[in-house]
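Internal tracking record. Fields below are filled automatically when a chain is submitted to the structure queue. Please do not edit lines marked as system-generated. If the sequence contains nonstandard residues, flag them in the REMARKS field before resubmitting.
Queue: standard
Priority: normal
Entity type: single polypeptide chain
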Amino acid sequence: MTEDQDKDKVDVPEQEWRERLNDEQYHVLREAGTEPAFSGRYVHNHEEGEYRCAGCGELLFDSDAKYDSGSGWPSFTRPASPAISEHSDASHGMRRVEVRCAKCDGHLGHLFPDGPGPTGLRYCINSASLDFKERKEG
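SYSTEM-GENERATED OUTPUT FOLLOWS
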């Protein structure tokens, strides 16, 4: 991480996160929770626009990288910016790659090597960790 990226990090007390986020967002972003499959508001979203972190507003994914993986969570082939950090996750008896927002350290979901081309990656992301901004025409 560069010095500029480090000074842009969001570092707020947990009480402020509790006030800023609803219960589901707090559980996912701050406690590394997972929403039930097929329950998220963006699973079937097909609008064009940007997916931003629900915690800090950082740009994470663009709709052109979203696809229907059938997993029950919004899935993307690549991030829209370098705002994603990857971490080893050995919870639940599995070895996975957890993805977090690099700006606020909010848990987003997991990264799997079973996505479509050209990247072959699947960023499996909780809707509760995202805010969607529709792209305006014109």
